[in-house]
Amino acid sequence: RIVYVNGQYLPEAEATISIFDRGFLMADGVYEVTSVLDGKLVDFAGHQVRLARSLGELDIAAPCSDGELLAIHRELVARNDLTDGMIYLQVTRGNPGDRDFAFPDPATTKPTLVLFTQSKPGMADSPASKTGIKVISIEDIRWGRRDIKTVQLLYPSMGKMMAKKAGADDAWMVEEGHVTEGTSNNAYIVKNGRIITRQLSHEILHGITRAAVLRFAAEAQMEVEERPFTIAEAMAADEAFFTSASAFVMPVVEIDGAVLGNGKPGPVARRLREIYLDESRKTAV
Ligand code: PLP
After folding, report:
1. Same domain, 84 and 167
2. What cofactors are annotated for this protein (predicted)?
3. Residues with CB under 6 A from ligand 1
4. What is the pLDDT of residues 246-259, one digit of tens each?
5. By alpha-carbon position, which residue is closest to atom 4 of ligand 1?
6. Does one domain contain both 149 and 226?
7. N- or C-end of the chain: fewer Cβ atoms within 10 A?
């Protein structure tokens, strides 16, 4: 695999960053995951806008222009012959020298920029999307700025392991009695044809897929209500699903052991997945 590190395209075994990099020492960095379908980038513009916002919130300088970032993404797709999969991008505050909680003026530290590809052949027809997946609920104990896409992923990663141990696929996190989001996705339920998902705030990541799916739902005259919901409400819902750049629209068929509807992916989730994939293919760059 050829990866990108700070201006260079290298075989992955030759790519290195400093052990003093604040991304490594302090999770002082942000990331984006962009899907690739048929060799093209899905919603590239959306990811770039969110990346710029994440960097701005943390006062990390932009590593390069949007045009250059697009060129790097495309070069990696080409060099790795990537048809279906994803591109992971990470920007950290870089290596200011000694380890120190205080960080220097962003104008004087060069951010670290790393990108790599992951191939996922057939991702648009994944078996999970046909059967639906199971989630458990866990307490949301993450920090209070989940709208910034930082690389502090230890708790979501532990949540995923808790789900696996419980025989499920993922965990939905609950704060003050209401679902915030999944470990790496935004959560939705459907009741009487109405799609319910938590409103945007500092409590959740502003999903790029979420924005697109809600737009498509509105265009298809589906009813959408943006508000928090409880696990009890989710267990009694007609269907549920989640969205993320790498899983698109994923049906959820079981929550904390309660089977939703007939235990199969529901019509709303299936329809939104189809629309999302169709539209994404049309607008991919
Ligand atoms: N919420 C969290 C916590 C995530 O980590 C992610 C994606 O990684 C999402 C939501 C979905 O965001 P997107 O649709 O932009 O991938």
Report:
1. no
2. pyridoxal 5'-phosphate
3. 33, 181, 184-186, 205, 207-210, 243-245
4. 999 999 999 999 99
5. 184
6. yes
7. C
Ligand 1 atom index nearest CA of 47 = 15
Q: How far apart are CA 285 and CA 281, in angstroms?
A: 9
Assess whether 116 and 131 both reside in one domain. Answer: no
User: 48 is written with which tokens?
Assistant: 């770039």
Q: What is the CATH number of the domain that holds 46?
A: 3.30.470.10
What mean pLDDT comes out for the span 169-194? 98
Please, which pLDDT band fits residue 96 given cuts at 50, 70 and 90?
confident
Mutational pocket test of ligand 1: of 135, 184, 201, the residue with most ligand atoms within 8 Å of the beta carbon? 184
Which of 149, 164, 165, 191 is catalytic? The answer is: 149
- The token pair at 28 is 């002082």
- The CATH number covering residue 192 comes to 3.20.10.10
Q: Which atom of ligand 1 is nearest to the CA of 50?
A: 15
Residue 110: active-site member: no
Q: 115 with 132, same domain? A: no
Place of tokens 């400093």: 18
Query: Whose alpha carbon is nearest atom 9 of ligand 1?
Result: 185
* Ligand 1 centroid to residue 86 C-alpha, Å: 14
Cα(175)–Cα(39) distance, integer angstroms: 39
Indicate if 45 and 156 belong to the same structural domain: no
Where in the sequence is the domain holding 84, given as residue range(s)? 2-120
Count structural domains, the chain: 2
**Helix H segments across 136-241?**
154-165, 208-219, 231-235
Domain finish residue from 103, 120, 137: 120
In this structure, are 269 and 134 located in the same domain? yes
Model confidence at 106, pLDDT cuts 50, 70, 90, reads: confident
Give Cα separations from 118 to 2, 180, 262, 285 (angstroms).
11, 28, 34, 18
ipTM of the complex: 0.99
